[in-house]
């Protein structure tokens, strides 16, 4: 745990809703130190590496890179990173995917006032907290042989990054600049995704991104 001089555990907030973030600061202030606040997934990855917080509280739907893919990127470099997702999406697929990647918690925003502090403490203790609203459904749908929506898992992490930026309205050149790729490589990713998913055009591809929570 990266607590300075034995003080409060340090928490990084990642959410692009500024009014909600201000409320979170108040909610967490008594028990945790604020390490920083960021508003998109790429900034979350950078801040996590630079600030080394004890726990990250992150939204799922953020600009440039969604929270789940940001977690996947962080886990590659630091398997011990602790991320508690705080989201408005009551969606089993989101929760399952986050937990499979090693999320430390999954809390619905409407339950934050009663559950978030518990979830952060659980993360600090190496435990996983899942909001009771979803826990029973997760157990039921997670049984062997149960059906699950796996379509997003057909894509690579890099392809999901490209897809999110496409769905946010960025051009191939703009995506290339954000990701450090060539525009041609971005287009190649786009057409490979369409082939993999059986999607025929860019509009359907964007609808897929929205349906599966890659953008708000």
TrEMBL record:
One GO MF term: DNA binding
Annotated Pfam families: GerE, Response_reg
Gene3D superfamilies, alphabetized: 3.40.50.2300
Record GO biological process: phosphorelay signal transduction system; regulation of DNA-templated transcription
Domain Response regulatory: 10-124
UniProt keyword annotation of Glycosyltransferase present: no
4-aspartylphosphate: residues bearing it: 59
Keywords per UniProt: DNA-binding, Phosphoprotein
Protein name, per record: LuxR family two component transcriptional regulator
Organism annotation: Rivibacter subsaxonicus
């Amino acid at each position: 745990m990266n607590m300075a001089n034995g003080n409060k555990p340090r928490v990084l907030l990642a959410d692009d809703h500024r009014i909600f973030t201000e409320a979170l600061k108040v909610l967490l202030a008594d028990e945790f130190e604020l390490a920083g606040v960021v508003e998109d997934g790429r900034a979350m990855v950078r801040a996590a590496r630079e600030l080394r917080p004890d726990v990250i509280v992150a939204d799922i739907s953020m600009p440039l890179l969604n929270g789940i893919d940001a977690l996947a990127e962080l886990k590659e470099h630091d398997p011990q990173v602790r991320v508690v997702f705080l989201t408005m999406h009551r969606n089993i697929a989101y929760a399952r995917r986050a937990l499979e990647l090693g999320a430390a918690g999954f809390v619905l925003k409407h339950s934050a006032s009663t559950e978030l502090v518990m979830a952060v403490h659980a993360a600090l203790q190496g435990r996983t907290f899942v909001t009771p609203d979803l826990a029973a459904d997760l157990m039921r749908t997670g049984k062997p042989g149960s059906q699950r929506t796996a379509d997003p898992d057909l894509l690579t992490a890099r392809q999901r990054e490209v897809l999110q930026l496409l769905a946010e309205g960025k051009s191939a050149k703009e995506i290339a600049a954000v990701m450090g790729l060539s525009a041609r490589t971005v287009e190649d990713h786009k057409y490979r995704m369409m082939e993999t998913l059986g999607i025929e055009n860019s509009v359907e591809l964007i609808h897929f991104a929205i349906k599966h929570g890659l953008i708000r």
